Amino acid sequence: MNNEQRFAGQIRLALEESSERLPYRVSYRLQSARLAALSRMTEPQELPAQVLAMPSPSGAAALALADGPPRAHVPAGWGRLAMGLLSALVVAGGLYAISEWTEIDRADEAADIDLAVLTDEVPISAYADRGFGVFIENLKKNAQ
Fold first, then answer.
1. Does the predicted model carry a pTM greater than 0.70?
2. Secondary structure E strands in the chain
């Protein structure tokens, strides 16, 4: 017997002893509260094998102890696969967002350069000059 089972056994014994000393009114109220809770359950559930003491009007003890509501069995492989796919989707979405952000940033930089060129007092003939591209590249390098 492990420690948890021993502890559960001690609790069961303590509850059984204390349930015998409860007044009938308290026992009846506990039983009716339990029945009201059971009537609100949506699906019938089977009771586990472990039973702890709970007073009832007849003096019998019956309260099912479980780890919680029964859960559908999901294989561990499916859970890991789903988490892996979810992680991959999050990473892919983040990379896409970063890519879009850098594209928008580049477009804004190009628009700023175009605006600066168009609002400058440079004659139109300067744009046709072959060295003008080199001049713009030098401006870009100096701006950084």
1. no
2. 51-52, 63-64
